[in-house]
Amino acid sequence: MRPAEPDDDPFLYQLYGTTREDLAYIDAPPEQIEKFLQMQFAAQSQHYKAYFPFSENLVIVHEDRPIGRLIVYRTEQEHHFIDIGLLPEFRSRGIGTALITGLIEECRAAGKPARFHVEKLNHRAMKLYQRLGFVFTGEIPTHYEMGLDPRQPDADASSQEAEPGADSQVKTD
Fold it and tell me: I need a surface site. Which of 6, 91, 111, 135 has the fewest CB within 10 A?
């Protein structure tokens, strides 16, 4: 990994586009979808800079090629995983698991809990996070909040919800 630089913006935009498969279902001309995607990427970038100004913004590199991003915001109270993403051809290879496991170990060493938000439609990511010990702690309209407190004894996986739904008792932010 290396720090992200302004020259990485085209790659980060490309990566962002791979996470927006939901746009394939919009009935609009491709140039309109592209313009919307550019606006969304710019808004996300501005949001991250405004709300997490001291976050560590990294580019994940494999054989001198950028393949993903990792943004972590560390505070006195917790570590907040802002964005973790890999290009599609590098997913399901254990890279994300290794990154998140490393972050969990960092939290354990610092004695701090971890949390993040995951899109409600991103079932694959939720399953990965649950497998690594994260549990649902809240929700906003588009995302679930998940957390892990490595200071606590390992939670019984059977007590974790598979996914919040209409019958779940998930706290709303």
Answer: 6
